[in-house]
Amino acid sequence: MAGNPSPADFTFDIEAILLDQRGEPTLGRAGVISTPHGHIATPAFIPVGTKATVKAVLPESMRDLGAQALLANAYHLYLQPGADIVDAAGGLGRFMSWDGPTFTDSGGFQVLSLGVGFKKVIAMDASTVQADDVIAEGKDRLAHVDDDGVTFKSHLDGSMHRFTPEVSMQVQHHIGADIIFAFDECTTLLNTRGYQEQSVQRTQDWAVRCVDEHKRLTAQRSHRPYQALFGVVQGAQYEDLRRKSARELAALDLDGFGIGGALDKAELGTIVRWVCEELPANRPRHLLGIGQADDVFAAVESGADTFDCVEASRNARNGTVYVGDRRIHVRNAVNRRTFEPLDPECDCYTCTHYSRAYLHHLFSAKEMLAATLATIHNERYIVRLVDRIRASIIDNTFYELRTEVLGRMQGSPPTV
């Protein structure tokens, strides 16, 4: 899109409101996000292509299985191949040959996970809050946060780098995704209340600087399509901090909002509701790092519109696949002579062409195709589930669908 990029190039329209079981409106809704590279019907699951690829799967295969948009990571693309190379290629979509909408996260989560050594999860146990300075056991700190930004050591070669809000905006503008996120500090649930308070204020201050730099770069880079900027709500499991963060971000000139940070899984729906009660209804809300079925139902009911998570593809590469709302380990011996599809009810390319026995063989032989076929299936499962949730909001069958899906999950036999 040539010419002058404008916020008008990004819109969000609400099509239906989720009604509760008494017929009263909830915070949940179905809508459509419009970007310069296409539309996203919400609620929607956004598969993660961290380094401009969903591992093991062609971009056109992601389109075929129903993915509406893909999310890449600014931290990883900054380190390799370099945001300038992505920019020279024409932006993220052209670089990876994906013609739909794209997202990039700010790199804030990588500062947490790589900086303090925690795994790539945001759901944590909230009962063990300990300290301001948290580091995972047996790990070395790779990142140091101050009020101006973050200094970090590359996990690739040990070189030192500096991210500030301005640098994050510059990197994301060069990458060129349709939806980008303000640089934020993602804490853990092991941090003290005092540190969470400082972090919420730091994230807010950084968001103000991101808005200013975003406006400057949008005007400067008028040859590129408009990029929508989302602020990220933090505050861990504290209601007052979550609401404060949401209110203060809502006062800024943002196109949408992310809900980030570590969460107590048992309180996920409640935390999302706190945030969405404070955010403007006419802006989309993206819940960062969530992809399990029970979490998605809780988040949608509480007002989240889009989600991303690496779990579907990561599980697939390890041989764990989703079947009938449960999980099976396709590498288990019972599948060696099972000449049926992974899931007879699934319409993905894997299930309509290959058997469990074949996938068992591929994993046993350590063939690369194993990861490809399993990932196609898992991504299709979660994309289709969220599509069904969207349809259930429109036809007012959300609670019946939730009971059906979660009932099958809770009543599932052991994995095989």
> Could you tell me how far the N terminus lies from the C terminus, measured between alpha carbons in angstroms?
50 Å
Structural class: alpha/beta
Number of strands: 16
Provide the β-strand percentage band.
Answer: 15-25%
Let me know the largest β-sheet: 8 strands, parallel
Number of helices: 15
Q: Write down the oligomeric state.
A: single chain
**Count of domain modules:** 2
CATH domain fold name of the largest domain: TIM Barrel
The averaged pLDDT comes out at 91
Computed over alpha carbons, the radius of gyration is 21 Å
Could you estimate the helical fraction of the residues in percent? 25-40%
**Order of the strands making up the biggest sheet:** 4-14-13-12-11-10-6-5
The second-level CATH architecture of the largest domain is: Alpha-Beta Barrel
Q: Outline, from the CA principal axes?
A: globular
Low-confidence blocks of residues: 117-123
Q: Write out the CATH superfamily name of the largest domain.
A: Queuine tRNA-ribosyltransferase-like
CATH class of the largest domain: Alpha Beta
Describe the structure.
The protein is an alpha/beta fold. The chain has 2 domains: 43-309, Queuine tRNA-ribosyltransferase-like (TIM Barrel, Alpha-Beta Barrel), CATH 3.20.20; 320-403, no CATH class. Helices cover 39% and strands 18% of the residues. The chain is built from 15 helices and 16 strands. It has helices at 59-64, 74-79, 83-88, 92-95, 108-116, 165-175, 193-220, 239-250, 268-278, 293-302, 311-317, 349-353, 356-364, 369-394, 398-410; strands at residues 11-19, 25-35, 38-42, 44-47, 70-73, 102-105, 143-145, 150-153, 160-163, 179-181, 228-233, 256-259, 285-287, 306-309, 320-323, 326-329. The strands form 4 sheets. An 8-stranded parallel beta sheet has the order 4-14-13-12-11-10-6-5. A 3-stranded antiparallel beta sheet has the order 1-2-3. It is globular. The termini are far apart. Mean pLDDT is 91; it is low at 117-123.
